[in-house]
Amino acid sequence: MNARLQLPSSEAVAGSAAELLTVLRAAPPLVQCITNSVVTGFTANVLLALGAAPAMVDITGEAGLFAGISSGLLVNLGTPTPEQRAASLEAVGGANAAGTPWVLDPVAVGALPVRTGLARDLLALSPTVIRGNASEILALAGRTAGGRGVDALDGTEAAADAARELAERTGGAVAVSGPVDLIVDAGTAIRTANGDALLTRVTGGGCALGAVMAAFLGAARQTGDSPVVAAAAATLVYTIAAEDAAQGAAGPGSFAVRLLDALSAIEPAGVAARARVEVAAAVTA
Amino acid sequence: MNARLQLPSSEAVAGSAAELLTVLRAAPPLVQCITNSVVTGFTANVLLALGAAPAMVDITGEAGLFAGISSGLLVNLGTPTPEQRAASLEAVGGANAAGTPWVLDPVAVGALPVRTGLARDLLALSPTVIRGNASEILALAGRTAGGRGVDALDGTEAAADAARELAERTGGAVAVSGPVDLIVDAGTAIRTANGDALLTRVTGGGCALGAVMAAFLGAARQTGDSPVVAAAAATLVYTIAAEDAAQGAAGPGSFAVRLLDALSAIEPAGVAARARVEVAAAVTA
Amino acid sequence: MNARLQLPSSEAVAGSAAELLTVLRAAPPLVQCITNSVVTGFTANVLLALGAAPAMVDITGEAGLFAGISSGLLVNLGTPTPEQRAASLEAVGGANAAGTPWVLDPVAVGALPVRTGLARDLLALSPTVIRGNASEILALAGRTAGGRGVDALDGTEAAADAARELAERTGGAVAVSGPVDLIVDAGTAIRTANGDALLTRVTGGGCALGAVMAAFLGAARQTGDSPVVAAAAATLVYTIAAEDAAQGAAGPGSFAVRLLDALSAIEPAGVAARARVEVAAAVTA
């Protein structure tokens, strides 16, 4: 198989980001979020600002049913209470039965046993996209114990092999967040270089990106874009908005406020013009 | 019965809004909130900004006892965990035993079975005020399955009959939020037309209004205003503050920040002068 | 014992505040927070803005293990679900076994039985620092039923004896928040007078200070500062940042945003120069 021939161009990825943003606003995807208690409000506000419709349906008896009618689902393991753990499995069952794309954000897996066990169970259910930092991706792939492993400062490349391996196992895409974001599937490696360090000073800066990916996966059901392209498109829109927000911000408080304003104001044409993206064939280790 | 003779004038409702705001700030009502995990922080900040005293007492063993000493209670069904469901019933029992007024916000009832069952149980316990959008009010009245029913864009009038029917069943008031807010009891229909579309772009924009209604019901225990007038007064104060907040806002992020500032700064005289309110007799369907 | 000879000078406390802030930013302490659902996001953002690393690990099966590797732990009783209550006891067990310092914030103890019982159990486990308002400290010491007792307006001195008594029982420090903050241990009474009344108009204004204390206790493991000095240092840094935030704030909404910006920008030299602090020997009642 000559993966090169199937690769999208950088321009095509940037164009998909602009198109998916247009589609999302024209027909707001219903995004179900099962996420941690720290970032629920910020995550919902990010989705609303962007133009999507958030719904935090995270209890058993409702989560699975709702996953069948939602456009995309986020499962974030930041504060996984017993009720949320059961609801996550129920939701993913409903999503997989209905063909609803879903994102797994394995927050802090590795050293913490409860979420790590749940993350492995969820991994076996083939998430459409996995999103995490390098440390989390390495831990989920079983290459480190997490936490004490690769620091965020090491950048995303340290997790490139682990990301591709996970993508091969799930048949989906894996996004590694960092100064350069790396989004891969079995054959493609997309690197994006927009954003601002202030995103790491706001709680939920990464978690909300997982929700934006679920929204873009929902929009991609209309355009036919692949999960790796949808995840890269979400990253581009979110991190370009972060650049706008950082301009004139006096610190992390005003940055977070301005990020919501910027997500609401960002235009597809600006995304296409400002995207810093490279596409390469995934290299077998 | 000639309901027309008992109707308050528009000027009287605007005047009650100003007076209740004055009373609320002079003797801050203790507002117990059992609300969803997405909006807890924003809701508490709205109440604090306005001048009320929020208390999120939402566990069994405490919720009922506290409802007996609080000035008003909000029960919002946005993310009803098993513990919250039990605490809601306990709290309402305590509220009804003590004569504490309470607000039911039946978020997303209709298609989702767990909250829909709970909402019906709570409806039978006679909430002082029910607050929702048109779709939720229609679903709670059993006229649609919710969600797939009337869209928010259809406005509040589509739910006018359902709202009056619910008010007749509970003996209280029902508030339908939308571009024009409709607040009814068995004999009265109050329409208010203040506000800004940005309220729909902030998570908790509607949920926090339910808490403000609970605060105004608490203040109304001193003035003797009826639930329908107290709910309309809360709507006027909140939506007029939203108009102030929208001026100069750069998007939903700065709007939410400015809404808290505006709720803190809003003066009773300004509320009375700027209220856009009409009062009519409820028409039997 | 001549406590006077062991007392730090006011200048020394101000100097410790500056030094601990420097140490905290050079080696960000990992701060585990088990806190209420209203303030989780704001608390994490306060820690991130300051330069610390928050981690909301609050489920059983993880909380105790994580307390063994964290730099400091906060246990806040604002919304104590059954799962959080069990996790709190597990976390404190892990913290005490590992020598991790921990802060108890007994929100609203006294009239509410569930949290009051838990607070007494936790009190027996010797928190490094207890932080609350005067009413909560009096209730925890068994001197009032709480709530109906001393109002915040009465100031912190009304709880001075109760605070010292609790400090003697735990061997740690007790911080009473108010217009003048009082931080005591068995032999020392530190009073600080920085801050702004807007802190009381933002939900989590006090709760987040408990988390900052846990962060400073973590940093104090490197400097050897005592708990009472670390708690006073945290109070100084936080309340001086609040003064910066209040300047130019238009109300509680913009104040909260500016507080995060100010915590990120505040410099150790400014803390040392602006600290309003007095140190006295604790007086036996």
TrEMBL record, chains A, B, C:
It catalyses: 5-(2-hydroxyethyl)-4-methylthiazole + ATP = 4-methyl-5-(2-phosphooxyethyl)-thiazole + ADP + H(+). Substrate binds at M56, G204. It comes from Microbacterium capsulatum. GO terms for molecular function: hydroxyethylthiazole kinase activity. The keyword ATP-binding applies. Belongs to the Thz kinase family. Its cofactor is Mg(2+). Its EC number is 2.7.1.50. It comes from the Bacteria. InterPro entries: Hyethyz_kinase, Ribokinase-like. This is Hydroxyethylthiazole kinase. Catalyzes the phosphorylation of the hydroxyl group of 4-methyl-5-beta-hydroxyethylthiazole (THZ). Keywords: ATP-binding, Kinase, Magnesium, Metal-binding, Nucleotide-binding, Thiamine biosynthesis, Transferase. It holds the Pfam family HK. ATP binds at R131, S177.
